[in-house]
Amino acid sequence: MTTRFSLAVVPGDGIGPEVTSQALTVLDAVAADHDVAFERTEYDLGARRWHATGETLPETVLEEIRGHDAILLGAIGDPSVPSGVLERGLLLRLRFELDHYVNLRPSKLYPGVPTPLAGSVTDRGDIDFVVVREGTEGPYVGNGGAIRVGTPHEMATEVSVNTAFGVERVVRDAFARAQARPRKKLTLVHKNNVLVHAGHLWKRTVDAVATEFPDVTTDYLHVDAATIFLATDPARFDVIVTDNLFGDILTDLAAAVTGGIGLAASGNVNPDRTAPSMFEPVHGSAPDIAGQSKADPTAAILSGALLLEHLGLPEAAARITTAVEADIADRGTTARRTEEVGEAIAARVAGGVAVG
Ligand SMILES: NC(=O)c1ccc[n+]([C@@H]2O[C@H](COP(=O)([O-])OP(=O)(O)OC[C@H]3O[C@@H](n4cnc5c(N)ncnc54)[C@H](O)[C@@H]3O)[C@@H](O)[C@H]2O)c1
Ligand SMILES: CC(C)[C@H](C(=O)O)[C@@H](O)C(=O)O
Ligand SMILES: [Mg+2]
C-alpha cells in the first residue's frame, strides 16, 4: 500500500525555484519504488508576494503549512526587498514558529570533489562531520534596537538570547547524534573567553549532559580557532554543537571546504515533532546567478534526502545520496545546467537497485 506524505513546498526567491524543482524531480523518482507518494502544496512566498501584497508569511498560510508532514524550501531573499524583511519575516519566522531548534548541517567530502583545503590535509576520506546549529535563539531572536538612528550618536544592540532550556535541548540532541556515529565525538564551539555569560552556560550544559553519554568524548574550541581547523584539519570533527550565529558562519565555511555551497544540505528539525521540520539548502537565493540555470541543485536534492530520513525512509534517502555520490564522481569540469544535473541524478535514482 502506498504511504502518502504531505509536503509544503516553498520555492522562494532567486535560484530557490530552480533548485527546488530538481529536488522534487528526484524525490518523485525515488517515491514509486518505495511505495510512497508526496502530495505537494506549493506556497507562493517571498519577494513576489511581498511586492504584490506586502505580506511575508500570513497567519493563515503558516497554519496551513503547519498541517503538513514536512516542508521543502528553496531559498529566501531578494535584492529588491529591504535586507532582513524576508529573511526575518518569512524564513526565521518559519524556523521559530515551528520550533526548529536543531539546525542540522552535515558536511562530507565526497570522492572526486575539488576542495581548496590546505595541502597538509591528506586524509580527505575522513571528512564527514555534522554541525548541530541551535536554531531558535542566539542573536537571531530580534532582541535589540537602535536609537538616534542616522546620527553620529546612533547606538544599536542585537542581544543574544541563550536559555538553559534552549541550550540543553540542542546539546542533548547533539550528544545523541554523536553517540549514534562511529567516532562518538562532540565538539562545542563558542567564544567563552569573551562571551562569558552565554559561553559558560553552553560549557556547563555540555559538561552536565556529558555525564549521561559516557561513551561520547567531548572537546571545546573557541570559534576563531574552529575556523582554522575547519580549513586545515576538518577531519578532526565529528559532531559540532554551537549557537545560531556561529553555526551559520561555520557551515558556509564547512561547505566551502567540502566541495562548495552548491552541495551543502540542511534540515531545520523539530525533534519533538510538534510541527513539521523543514529541509533546505544551506545556500541563499544567489541573485548573481538566478534565472540562468547555473545553480547547482545538489544541495537541494540532498536536502530532499534528509527529508526522507526524517520521514522514516532511510533506504529511499540512501538511494538519493548514492546517486549524488555517483554523479559527483563523474562530474568532470564541464559546466552543466541546473536541470541537467537534476535529471542526471534522477536517472541514476530511477536506474538504481531498489532496496527497502
Ligand atoms: N536559507 C536561505 O534561504 C538563505 C541562506 C543564505 C542567504 N540567504 C539570502 O540569499 C540572498 C543572497 O545571499 P548571499 O549572496 O549572501 O548568499 P548565497 O548563498 O545566495 O550566495 C553566495 C554565493 O554562492 C553562490 N551560490 C549559492 N548557491 C549556489 C548554488 N546552488 N550553485 C552555485 N552557486 C551558488 C552564489 O552565486 C554566490 O556567489 C540574501 O538575501 C540572503 O539573505 C537565504
Ligand atoms: C538568510 C539567513 C536568515 C539564514 C541564516 O542566517 O540562518 C541563512 O544564512 C542560512 O544559513 O540559512
Ligand atoms: Mg547562512
TrEMBL record:
<keyword id="KW-0479">Metal-binding</keyword>
<feature type="binding site">
    <location>
        <position position="248"/>
    </location>
    <ligand>
        <name>Mg(2+)</name>
    </ligand>
</feature>
<keyword id="KW-0460">Magnesium</keyword>
<keyword id="KW-0100">Branched-chain amino acid biosynthesis</keyword>
<dbReference type="GO" id="GO:0003862">
    <property type="term" value="F:3-isopropylmalate dehydrogenase activity"/>
</dbReference>
<protein>
    <recommendedName>
        <fullName>3-isopropylmalate dehydrogenase</fullName>
        <ecNumber>1.1.1.85</ecNumber>
    </recommendedName>
</protein>
<dbReference type="GO" id="GO:0009098">
    <property type="term" value="P:L-leucine biosynthetic process"/>
</dbReference>
<comment type="subunit">
    <text>Homodimer.</text>
</comment>
<feature type="binding site">
    <location>
        <position position="95"/>
    </location>
    <ligand>
        <name>substrate</name>
    </ligand>
</feature>
<feature type="site" description="Important for catalysis">
    <location>
        <position position="191"/>
    </location>
</feature>
<feature type="binding site">
    <location>
        <position position="224"/>
    </location>
    <ligand>
        <name>Mg(2+)</name>
    </ligand>
</feature>
<feature type="site" description="Important for catalysis">
    <location>
        <position position="140"/>
    </location>
</feature>
<feature type="binding site">
    <location>
        <position position="252"/>
    </location>
    <ligand>
        <name>Mg(2+)</name>
    </ligand>
</feature>
<keyword id="KW-0520">NAD</keyword>
<comment type="pathway">
    <text>Amino-acid biosynthesis; L-leucine biosynthesis; L-leucine from 3-methyl-2-oxobutanoate: step 3/4.</text>
</comment>
<dbReference type="GO" id="GO:0005737">
    <property type="term" value="C:cytoplasm"/>
</dbReference>
<feature type="binding site">
    <location>
        <position position="224"/>
    </location>
    <ligand>
        <name>substrate</name>
    </ligand>
</feature>
<feature type="binding site">
    <location>
        <position position="133"/>
    </location>
    <ligand>
        <name>substrate</name>
    </ligand>
</feature>
<dbReference type="GO" id="GO:0051287">
    <property type="term" value="F:NAD binding"/>
</dbReference>
<feature type="binding site">
    <location>
        <begin position="284"/>
        <end position="296"/>
    </location>
    <ligand>
        <name>NAD(+)</name>
    </ligand>
</feature>
<comment type="function">
    <text>Catalyzes the oxidation of 3-carboxy-2-hydroxy-4-methylpentanoate (3-isopropylmalate) to 3-carboxy-4-methyl-2-oxopentanoate. The product decarboxylates to 4-methyl-2 oxopentanoate.</text>
</comment>
<dbReference type="InterPro" id="IPR024084">
    <property type="entry name" value="IsoPropMal-DH-like_dom"/>
</dbReference>
<dbReference type="InterPro" id="IPR019818">
    <property type="entry name" value="IsoCit/isopropylmalate_DH_CS"/>
</dbReference>
<feature type="binding site">
    <location>
        <position position="105"/>
    </location>
    <ligand>
        <name>substrate</name>
    </ligand>
</feature>
<keyword id="KW-0432">Leucine biosynthesis</keyword>
<keyword id="KW-0028">Amino-acid biosynthesis</keyword>
<feature type="domain" description="Isopropylmalate dehydrogenase-like">
    <location>
        <begin position="6"/>
        <end position="345"/>
    </location>
</feature>
<dbReference type="InterPro" id="IPR023698">
    <property type="entry name" value="LeuB_actb"/>
</dbReference>
<dbReference type="Pfam" id="PF00180">
    <property type="entry name" value="Iso_dh"/>
</dbReference>
<keyword id="KW-0560">Oxidoreductase</keyword>
<keyword id="KW-0963">Cytoplasm</keyword>
<keyword id="KW-0464">Manganese</keyword>
<dbReference type="GO" id="GO:0000287">
    <property type="term" value="F:magnesium ion binding"/>
</dbReference>
<dbReference type="InterPro" id="IPR050501">
    <property type="entry name" value="ICDH/IPMDH"/>
</dbReference>
<comment type="similarity">
    <text>Belongs to the isocitrate and isopropylmalate dehydrogenases family. LeuB type 2 subfamily.</text>
</comment>
